[in-house]
């Protein structure tokens, strides 16, 4: 087959690797508009289950990614000025630029043509002529998807809270949070290491806090200085690092959740953020994109067909439902943060770990904490919680349709 992949992010590169491994005779080209080594973001997170899937798909790239990753097990939270620790499962962080470099090298090694600084204008671009399959892996603002917007049925929901994605020279050995109360409300940070020299910091707050602190009017340099002061105990005096935009502006965003009614049109198929996004607070974006690549490659073992592409989209939309639900409740937890900040820090941190629960928004936080602790000791109550949670989620989600 002749396959054209538009977008050289993790999903597009990994899909090209999988297809070359399935059949080396495939003619595969990846078109990436940005230069090699140029990428947004700092580090990405994933958990052990993803590594198992990647090893099954391509052991070579999986081992390279594992070797480039850092690991943590504990979660640490600073609430006002009190530090609390929560023991948890092992998590991993890896630099986004490093991951992309490893995947691009592996793709080339297998015979994939990777063309950087080569944008594609749309589905009718000459680069795509004659392709048996065109993969839109060009992100949430996908040009290929938007050219057939009515076919894909893309829908966006915009979150309330502004956030900014930053780096720091402080190297965190645990997944760390800091919640700071200001005269204008709460502002918080999540931070995790992704190499021996750098960590990612995501800062978020309510709109009123953002404007009250003047962050809506500050340039990037002034924003970083204020945030360094607010989170001084988390950063241990290390600086924050921005994205160095030419105009010096601070890159505050509001998160857009994307869903699509269908994932293919003729021989054009969506992959990763071009098809869906989930709120960054669950740390699953890269994992879900790579799982898309695995599912699409599996669907195409017997060649490209409407039935194969339909089965891929149906499968992934079904598999994504738990993550999308978790992301929706996680975002809402942070948007309603003051509801939980009346608890003592250890209890607040325990509920932070429960923020994906569909029950939590409907139960007083203090009562939920005690019920959750009891469920941990009593198997019948634990089973009831597992039974009730999905039913509440479906009921609430159904009302929102």
Topology (SSEs and partners):
Elements: E1 2-6, H1 10-22, E2 27-31, E3 43-47, H2 48-57, H3 59-67, E4 70-79, E5 82-95, H4 96-109, E6 113-115, E7 133-136, H5 143-146, H6 149-152, E8 155-168, E9 175-182, E10 185-193, E11 199-205, H7 207-212, H8 220-230, H9 232-235, E12 240-241, E13 253-259, E14 264-265, E15 268-270, H10 285-299, H11 306-335, H12 345-352, H13 365-377, H14 379-399
Parallel strand pairs: 1-2, 1-7, 2-6, 4-9, 7-15
Antiparallel strand pairs: 3-5, 4-5, 8-11, 8-12, 8-13, 9-10, 10-11, 14-15
Helix pairs in contact: 1-4, 1-10, 2-3, 2-10, 3-4, 10-11, 13-14
General description of the model:
By secondary structure, this protein is an alpha/beta fold. 40% of the residues lie in helices and 24% in strands. The strands form 2 sheets. Strands 3, 4, 5, 8, 9, 10, 11, 12 and 13 form a 9-stranded mixed beta sheet that branches. It is globular, with a radius of gyration of 22 Å.
Features:
401 residues, alpha/beta, 9-stranded mixed β-sheet, 14 helices
In short:
With 401 residues, the protein is α/β, with parallel strands linked by helices.
Query: What's the N-to-C terminus distance?
Result: 39 Å
Tell how many strands the DSSP assignment holds.
Answer: 15
The sequence of SSEs as H and E is EHEEHHEEHEEHHEEEEHHHEEEEHHHHH
What's the main sheet like?
9 strands, mixed
Q: Helical segment tally?
A: 14
Note the overall shape: globular
Content of β-strand? 15-25%
Average pLDDT level = 92
Rg on CA atoms, Å: 22 Å
Task: Detail the poorly predicted runs.
Answer: 387-401
| Helical amount | 40-55%
């Amino acid at each position: 087959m002749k396959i054209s992949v538009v977008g050289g992010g993790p999903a597009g590169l990994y899909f090209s690797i999988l297809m070359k491994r399935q059949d080396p005779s495939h003619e595969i080209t990846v078109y990436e508009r940005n230069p090699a080594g140029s990428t947004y973001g700092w580090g990405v997170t994933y958990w052990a289950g993803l590594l198992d899937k990647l090893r099954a798909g391509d052991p070579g790239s999986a081992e390279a990614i594992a070797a480039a990753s850092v690991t943590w097990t504990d979660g640490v939270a600073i609430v006002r000025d009190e530090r609390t620790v929560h023991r948890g499962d092992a998590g991993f962080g890896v630099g986004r630029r490093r991951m992309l470099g490893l995947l691009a090298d592996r793709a080339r090694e297998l015979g994939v043509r990777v063309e950087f600084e080569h944008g594609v204008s749309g589905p009718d671009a000459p680069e795509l002529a004659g392709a048996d399959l065109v993969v839109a892996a060009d992100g949430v603002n996908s040009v290929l998807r938007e050219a057939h917007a009515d076919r894909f049925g893309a829908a966006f929901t915009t979150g309330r809270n502004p956030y900014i994605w930053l780096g720091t020279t402080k190297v965190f050995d645990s997944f760390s949070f800091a919640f700071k109360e200001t005269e204008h409300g709460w502002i918080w940070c999540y931070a995790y290491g992704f190499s021996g020299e750098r960590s990612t910091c995501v800062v978020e707050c309510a709109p009123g806090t953002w404007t009250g602190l003047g962050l809506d009017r500050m340039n990037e340099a002034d924003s970083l200085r204020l945030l360094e002061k607010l989170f001084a105990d988390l950063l241990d005096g290390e600086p924050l690092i921005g994205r160095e935009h030419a105009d010096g502006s601070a890159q505050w965003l509001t998160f857009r959740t994307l869903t699509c009614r269908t994932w293919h049109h003729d021989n054009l198929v969506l992959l990763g953020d071009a098809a869906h996004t989930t709120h960054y607070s669950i740390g699953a974006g890269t994992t879900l994109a790579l799982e898309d690549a695995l599912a699409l490659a599996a669907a195409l073992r017997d060649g490209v067909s409407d039935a194969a592409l339909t089965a891929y989209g149906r499968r992934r939309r079904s598999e994504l439902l738990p993550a999308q639900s978790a992301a929706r409740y996680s975002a809402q937890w942070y948007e309603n943060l003051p509801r939980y900040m009346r608890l003592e820090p250890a209890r607040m941190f325990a509920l932070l770990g429960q923020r994906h629960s569909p029950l939590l928004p409907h139960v007083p936080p203090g009562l939920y904490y005690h019920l959750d602790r009891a469920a941990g000791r009593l198997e019948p109550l634990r089973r009831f919680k597992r039974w009730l949670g999905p039913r509440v989620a479906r009921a609430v989600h159904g009302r929102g349709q």
